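Sorry to interrupt, but I need a hand with the structure work. I would like you to pick a protein and set down its sequence and fold. Please put the record directly below this note.
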Amino acid sequence: MIDVFDAAGIKKPDISILSEEFLLEVQNMEHKNIALEVLKKLLNDEIKARVKKNLVQSRSLMEMLENSIKKYHNKVITAAEVIGELIELSKEIKRMDKEPQEMDLSEFEYAFYTAIADNDSARELMQKEKLRELAVVLFEKVKQNASIDWTIKESVRAKLKVIVKRTLRHYGYPPDMQALATETVLKQAELIADEIIKRG
């Protein structure tokens, strides 16, 4: 397995891989197939690292990445075009990183926000502010009810499920989407359970 960074003549990038300079460097690389591999690997690693922090967001980013690569493999777009798409995806990631701060939410609260704002009817029915408030309340309730072994203990999980459902209903979350939102919130809660308990 050759190291794509060595092949591209790039020193192992640090966290600033998505910096404008780096993206420009990749875009201007002579060998587009190597540039593509570098970008693909970096984005893939970047997105995987986010799964624990934000389930919904990393899922949608991974979908975007895979779609671009698929279009390239199916010869719908050229290497230069797919590099352009991946650079746009990098910029989208940077834009998403600013969102929690802009909404005055912690990383965890924002993860719950994306979990419940993940469907159109919820976004239409409940405005952003109400969804934001709901996310904060859900995070608090999860934090209060998360125990060391709650991901294993069925009774604790069941209790949390009831709390999440009740909270969604109380805030007027679209009834047809409540079951899906409950599952997503619980999955997100499971991913960050250790962190919540450590910080709690």
Notes: The mean pLDDT is 86. The chain has two domains: 4-102, 107-199. The chain is about 75% helix and 0% strand. Residues 34 and 102 are 36 Å apart (CA to CA).
